[in-house]
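Hi V.,

You were right to ask for the full record rather than a summary. Here it is.
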Amino acid sequence: MNFDFIAKKRILFILSAIIIVLGLISFLLKWGLDFGKDFKEGILIEVNFKEQIETKEIRNILKKNNFIADVIQSIDEKKYQIEVFTGEDKKGEIKNLFIETGLIEDDIKVNSILPFHSKDIFVKILYLILIGAVMLFLISLIKKELILALVAFITAIFNLLLTLSVFSILGKKISITMIISIIIIFIYSVGLIINIINRISKNKLLIKSIGYKEMINLSLKQASGVSLIALIAVLILLVGLIIYSEGLFRNLAILLTSGFITVTFSSIFTSGSLLEILNQYFSKYK
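Predicted structure:
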């Protein structure tokens, strides 16, 4: 593959900056990365109607009183379970809404839905990922130079920032599914970065013959070939899940697809660009 990665670093930085800014804007507008229902308290209502009723009618009953049914699940023809994510103090009000319709067969069961995890779990996961990035730095430092270890660390953090920005742009809410996908994407990102750093480390002997810039380009070409083949193989499975699945699996597939694509190209371009920039300040490579 005859491609000059280093020559495209300006395009990379402009594109990355646009993605991060758009991600920040979407976050501030609460379009994406807001806490989803996994982190919210709610009410689970079990209603037995006198006759069969459509879910649309149930939604309308709640909507008229400014409540939104997040999930409506049919137990049988007349019985439904309804999830409304609102404060526990609204239990009585919601119960009365259905009683006043005159459509209820018997008593309504109302239970609380407690968040499966506290909101600070997302922050804790980010701390763990930061620790993982530090471990990547230390692993890269073994038998390699400080600059390569530093580049590996910065690239891992930059990959995480870009991934979160893409998730925010896509309007994805923070959920258990997102947390799982972030962990998987981070592990995938670490593998890519280690592969790139190893290639560069092995090719350092070529600096005197072809120059530092060409050595980096050669290393990135070698690493990108393997990375792109792995990415295509994974995407075939994930795209299949997006097309043929729904709900949780489809959402997980969308998150992983966008994340894998982002970190694959970011790892290749970011690591190479950082090394080329650092080379300008360290005369031993010139």
